[in-house]
Backbone:
């Protein structure tokens, strides 16, 4: 293997900024690191919610709502629909933002929508081991992959019967660690 | 100036992925590029909204609501509060998400809250030339910096008198180009 010189990055506060960044000492490039957006949906079909069992790390084998990192060039709504397609082979329409959650420790913002299937059926996507509908009292609470899955499911339940609703943020004082 | 060899990045679809990424041919590092989050607020004081005239590019000299890129380690709410402090020296509390907008062309998601001052007064931050309160019919519509400032101000107006409200997305078919 050939050794490649690393770019001469230095850590300093750029002009006009107020916090340290990694800056290339040669070309001045500033390497900003910003939070990423996860888009997802609580997909509801006849009162049941669609969960997928994760085929990938982190939390392989645990259940989640379809959700994943937004891509450049799409809207947040498109991202949620794409993830439903990829993870659960589900075509969905969105009918409201359930939650806008922050997980500061890992630099994530999660935008989770309420959704429904726009055509019958779903399947097991490449990143899933299994996909199925759960009635409220069947949800495998102790086998959910992430705190935000708990939050979104609970917030969804509060919106049953409501046409419009404000989105929730993190539960008070909960920063999504697990 | 010393020439530094560029890392041998190649463009390919990583295993388990479904789109092209820049991947380092030596170490396998995948350079994911994802949208960034802008957090901001329509800050209301006695029925007027707080706008700042931008001291920086893009759109120097045009008016905007306080808003800017979220930092890792903060929540989206903290980001909106920090930007109000930095750009308008304003201490605010948030009372609802007005809009969650997407600008796909530039890879941005904008989370704009309704807010009010929690202590009297504001000022001109480092990134602003001027800051002032505008009544609705004083807003300099033709001198606003970005389409999303129009969207947020119009969505704010629809929430006057409402304690809770669903957030808006982009106006139908509008991807925020200008």
Residues:
């Amino acid at each position: 293997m050939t050794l490649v010189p690393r770019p001469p990055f230095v850590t300093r506060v750029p002009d006009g900024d107020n916090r340290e960044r990694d800056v290339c000492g040669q070309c001045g490039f500033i390497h900003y690191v910003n939070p990423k957006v996860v888009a997802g949906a609580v997909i509801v079909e006849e009162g049941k919610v669609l969960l997928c069992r994760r085929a990938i790390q982190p939390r392989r084998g645990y259940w989640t709502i379809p959700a994943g990192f937004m891509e450049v060039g799409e809207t947040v709504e498109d991202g949620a629909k794409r993830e439903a397609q990829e993870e659960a082979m589900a075509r969905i329409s969105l009918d409201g933002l359930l939650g806008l959650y922050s997980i500061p420790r890992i630099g994530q913002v999660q935008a989770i929508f309420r959704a429904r299937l726009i055509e019958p059926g779903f399947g097991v996507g490449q990143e899933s081991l299994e996909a199925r509908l759960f009635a409220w009292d069947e949800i495998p609470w102790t086998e959910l992959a992430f705190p935000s899955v708990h939050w979104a499911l609970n917030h969804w339940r509060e919106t049953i019967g409501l046409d419009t609703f404000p989105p929730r943020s993190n539960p008070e004082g909960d920063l999504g660690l697990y």
